[in-house]
Task: structure prediction
Amino acid sequence: MTLFRREFLSAGAAATLSAGAALAQGAPAAGARAPEPPPTSAGNSLPDNEKKIRIVTLRDLEAEAEKVMVPFGFAYVAGGAGDEWTMKENLAAFNRWTIMPNYLTGHRSSDPSTTILGTRIACPVIAAPVGNQGVVHAQGELPTVKGTALAGTTYVTSSVSQMSLEDIVAASSGDKWFQIYFPDDRSFATELLQRAKAAEYKVIVITVDATITSNRERATRLIGAPLPGLAMGNSPGTPGVTGNAMAMKIDLTWDDVDFCRSTTGLPVIVKGILSPAQALEAERRGCAGVWLSNHGGRQLDNTPYAITVLPRVAEALKGRTAIIIDGGVYRGQDVFRALALGANAVALGRPLQYGSALGGAQGVRSVYDHLRTEFTMTMQLAGTPTVQSIARNCLERAET
Ligand SMILES: Cc1cc2nc3c(=O)[nH]c(=O)nc-3n(C[C@H](O)[C@H](O)[C@H](O)COP(=O)(O)O)c2cc1C
Result:
């Protein structure tokens, strides 16, 4: 089964936008046609490395990964929407907060482990859902799935993965959540949700910020560049439901969030929340968590960055509902600042993909290991021996 190459490459301005942007957001274009037979790999040489990588700082990874990734794959992962303002702000925003260390506390070690929705994880860092990892590594999602389990944390499966959601569960023993781009076809939505429940995913994450494709200009410029052949792991199996069912539901509502809950009975997290009002509505509807995100700056450019809205959302929710944030997390200090402002965990998108391109599952593990070490160092130097002790008074706003 394939990921509709034609959707990316069809002629015409509108089609061109959806062609580049659909892949770029890891989601099928709204109104996408049925999948075609597999395209060949067109001479692409995808990375197929399996090795630990030596990391001085995660900030070096993007440039190193560019050297081994196919050009379209790199544009797809590294790019953002529009002027990429939001994507850049995701990085800059952390430095608007300074860490106020509490010295002379007398503790000799710090424990970075924590619990998120009932599961113990080695560090408050999980894998963000990333679709179409077949453009990153010859083995698609496998390196990230395995590397995440090796690191002792949670993998969030994108509904637009090359591997099926069942194969992803079978690939490692680690804890898994299922992220759904809610399909326009209700029967297919039901099928996906029931499959996720049957496969024993623990949590459903519904992404609400990607109902249409966005202006991913780096990817659009490369339309026509060779694309790897990409399987579609979760195409419909229900009789009468065609490949068109993969099209995203454009007119998504809170009822669709409720539907995820009523269909599975599993905890639901809403991903893409950027305001206290929406976070409170998610809580009112019984969601187990909110995921503050601007999709790594890949959807609506000029939206705020998660770390900026986090204090107001945390103040509104008062610890009653789990908060995950993502976007631009590259430092242990970023993890620390997110937790101090009220997040329960952070998620990594691009850094894990660069780890996969550079070293497969071991490369992904190296990324987690490096970040955990830097986070533990930050905890120790800041005087916070446990994750629970990281609080709002550990930070001050930076003077500009
Ligand atoms: C290549 C790529 C594909 C993505 N695919 C999905 C997806 O399938 N579902 C989703 O909810 N978010 C997707 N995202 C967004 C991530 O889950 C996450 O919000 C974002 O990458 C976080 O920012 P960071 O890359 O700076 O860590 C994708 C991001 C990237 C970079």
Summary: The CA atoms of residues 65 and 354 lie 5 Å apart. Residues 26, 76-77, 90, 128-131, 158, 160, 179, 207, 271, 293, 295-296, 298, 326-329, 348-350 surround flavin mononucleotide (CB under 6 Å). Confidence is low (pLDDT under 50) at residues 1-22, 24-43. The chain has 14 helices and twelve strands.
